[in-house]
């Protein structure tokens, strides 16, 4: 049986990028005969400037949205990272396995550290070490597959390196996981800045479609999406025409069609944008509706998270205990 693990950071409201790049794969995975664990990785949200009450609110909202998107607590384990101490226990051992140099090479660290410095904020040490905590999240469950968007490729590579290194030094302890990405829309771009990823913590919401945006707001954002200059018509070219390629990718992901073939059906951007807006509104409609129902009963969501944490802890504890013993620590 394949074991699947993935997570989402409560750093903002979930976006279309999160949905197409990750969450939709998670929902599909729980219907396969696999064992799947999904996590609101709240500790990762503390690596940049944060407001405590907002992180708490967004954590419950993310869990509610994951349920609304179709995760079924009878088929998967849904929990909050900070509820399972094994993640931080294991992270320390992996910090003793990773090197400063390999963490400083992480693209997200470089980008976010530069952003924090530009804003006059200090760069939190946890921003540097967070990929190690992410490795612990994954390795604690002897995960086989990590369904993520393209932007997480480098972090999963690091996780693999750490698993291999730990196993070689201290004896076989961890499964070496692999990342999986959707065939299209593995990297949904910002509608206003189509050379940058659509990220939920970005300041300018105009280029970001949030899962809970009203249909009218979704339409406005899509219709105002930046397209590319040039009179080459509608063609799929990610390098030369990133804005149009992004819209085609989103439409392809919503309809199951091929983005290159889709481009052949359009002569102008207006019709393309209208179709993208319709498709996204329809894709998100059931998620918004279900979210409204679930959000009315937060105690039920909290119960799912509590039970999920119990199941997760039971899986992670023996793996982390084994790692403690393997690395040379005396059992209590
Ligand atoms: N634009 C995207 N396209 C495809 N997949 C995406 N993911 C995120 N953005 C896109 C995937 O969604 C999962 C959860 O993402 P996350 O919570 O780790 O990160 P985020 O939504 O991108 O939020 P932030 O705070 O803006 O973080 P940074 O800037 O650090 O990425 C992941 O599987 C991710 O790949």
UniProtKB/TrEMBL annotation:
Motif placement: 'HIGH' region: 10-18
What does the entry list as the binding residues for L-tryptophan? Answer: 137
Q: Pfam family of this protein, just one?
A: tRNA-synt_1b
Principal localization reads cytoplasm
- Judging by the UniProt lineage, the source's domain of life is Bacteria
Binding, ATP: 9-11, 17-18, 149-151, 188, 197-201
UniProt subcellular location: Cytoplasm
- What molecular function does GO assign, one term? ATP binding
Give TM segment ranges.
none
Q: Name one GO biological process term.
A: tryptophanyl-tRNA aminoacylation
Q: Which PROSITE patterns match?
A: AA_TRNA_LIGASE_I
Q: Does the keyword Cytoplasm apply?
A: yes
Name the keywords, alphabetized.
Aminoacyl-tRNA synthetase, ATP-binding, Cytoplasm, Ligase, Nucleotide-binding, Protein biosynthesis
Which HAMAP family does the UniProt entry name for this protein? Trp_tRNA_synth_B
- How is the quaternary structure described? Homodimer.
- The protein's name is Tryptophan--tRNA ligase
Q: Which organism is it from?
A: Streptomyces subrutilus
């Amino acid at each position: 049986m394949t074991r699947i693990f993935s997570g989402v950071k409560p750093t903002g409201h979930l976006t279309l990028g999160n949905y197409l790049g990750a969450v939709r794969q998670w929902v599909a995975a729980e219907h396969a005969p696999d064992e799947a664990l999904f996590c609101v990785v709240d500790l990762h949200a503390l690596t940049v400037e944060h407001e405590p009450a907002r992180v708490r609110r967004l954590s419950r909202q993310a869990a509610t949205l994951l349920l609304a998107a179709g995760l079924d607590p009878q088929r998967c384990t849904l929990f909050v990272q900070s509820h399972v101490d094994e993640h931080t226990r294991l992270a320390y051992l992996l910090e003793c396995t990773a090197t400063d140099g390999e963490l400083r090479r992480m693209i997200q660290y470089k980008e976010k550290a530069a952003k924090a410095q530009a804003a006059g904020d200090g760069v939190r040490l946890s921003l540097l070490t967070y990929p190690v905590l992410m490795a612990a999240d994954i390795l604690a469950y002897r995960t086989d597959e990590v369904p993520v968007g393209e932007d997480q490729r480098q972090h999963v590579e690091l996780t693999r390196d750490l698993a291999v290194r730990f196993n070689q030094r201290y004896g076989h302890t961890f499964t070496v996981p692999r990342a999986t990405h959707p065939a299209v829309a593995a990297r949904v771009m910002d509608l206003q800045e189509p050379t940058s990823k659509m990220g939920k913590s970005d300041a300018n919401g105009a280029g970001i479609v949030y899962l809970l945006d009203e249909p009218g707001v979704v339409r406005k954002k899509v219709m105002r999406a930046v397209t590319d200059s040039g009179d080459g018509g509608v063609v799929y070219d990610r390098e030369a025409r990133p804005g149009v390629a992004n819209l085609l990718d989103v439409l392809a992901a919503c309809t199951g069609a091929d983005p290159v073939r889709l481009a052949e059906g359009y002569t102008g951007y207006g019709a393309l944008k209208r179709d993208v807006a319709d498709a996204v509104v329809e894709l998100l409609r059931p998620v918004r509706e279900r979210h409204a129902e679930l959000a009315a009963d937060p105690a039920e969501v909290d119960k799912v998270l509590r039970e999920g944490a119990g199941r997760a802890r039971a899986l992670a504890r023996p793996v982390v205990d084994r790692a403690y013993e393997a690395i040379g620590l005396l059992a209590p």
